[in-house]
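Attaching the record inline, Q. Sequence:
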Amino acid sequence: MTGRQLVLDVFKGKEVERTPWVPYTGVQIASLKGYSAEEVLKDGDKLLECLLESNKQYSPDGQPVIFDLQIEAETLGCDLLWAEKAPPTVCSHPLQAQKDFEKKIPGPDEGRTPIVLEVMKRFKKAVGDTTALYGLVCGPFTLASHLRGTDIFMDMYDDPDYVKRLLAYTTEVAKAFADYYVEAGMDIIGAVDPLVSQISPESFKEFMTEPYTDFFSHVRSNAAYSSFFVCGDATKNLEVMSETKPDCLSIDENIDIVSAKKVTDSYGITISGNIQLTVVMLLGTQQDCQKSAIEKIDQMGKKGFILAPGCDMPFDVPKANVIGVAQAAQNYEATKKAIENYTPELLNVDVELPDYVNLKKPLIEVFTIDSATCAACGYMKAAADGMLKEFPEGVDIVERKITEAENIARCGKMGIANLPTIVINGEVKYISLIPNREELKTAVQAVI
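Structure, as predicted:
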């Protein structure tokens, strides 16, 4: 049985002979050929070269062609800030200064879309018989945030009708890109919406249930499978997300996947995840990665589960670590025996916390995966940065990325278990919940 058939059988609800493996290979694959993230996301030939190399080395049963949540935003007028080792970030929001918008649906010939579609077709021809291919679109809420900026969180209170109109529009954009990707040969359409974890179930029902139910129904009508990708601690929203009827929920390390599977099983939905990106895949050894993979496989069984990283892999994840996970999934018994006596090394980093009692001005610490690669982290960081205008007399803002070992140690010392999280003067204030401007302003004012 091919890896592709294995993945599709899981989506069909069948029990399979082994757990399928789907690495979320975003810009990490650029490192296999010595390219930068910017090069592979702008040059179709380089992207295809890296895709083919990663397919050969990582032995994926399924694989996304591109992991870039800014493609749609760029075609709609957002400016991008490019990086060497990360996808671009949105640095301008066309609807921030004025809320009116035209309901323009980008065509397949606009922006970088032609490059993506051409690569999809060529990659499909090369590996499509053996590998299930994912086409990832930017989810409606994150796309709306790209257009409107962090003001959308205030809009949800002040102008909910506007938010609903904007989401209806961004859903149509997502549906259009889903159509382009299905036509280019993609088996599974993933809606990647990191910001969904940053709102309450009540807000999800009010704003997201209708758009997402519509989107997944549309994907089904095109004879493709769907996956709902979410970052951050979306535990509170698993039920309402499932009610929109995706074929799969893809979750990150912030969520207890064993408990989450009880929810997805009750809805007949596949679940995918959730090997830790930084502690294990980036900073761990190959044996750490294999141990984590084996534990997931043992916990989750052979029905309704796809083994995957928690999200898009960081650029510097060692290729040996990715290969190690593939070995664990595809040579389970041999790998399990090889690591049965392996004991992971404990992270031993000593960090000194700020003297919170004697701070001269408010200190906002934003604990993130990395604001340059995680949209939810980026918008939480942007919310914090907004306080610089609100408090011209001074406020210090520091990002603590857990891509750095010392910040993993900080999280442990401060009892921070979920990301992104805002800490004000040493007190954990917002966990996987982006505050609106007035909320955060009030919280900062309270410590002055």
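The chain has a mean pLDDT of 94. The chain has two domains: 3-338, 356-445.

More tomorrow.
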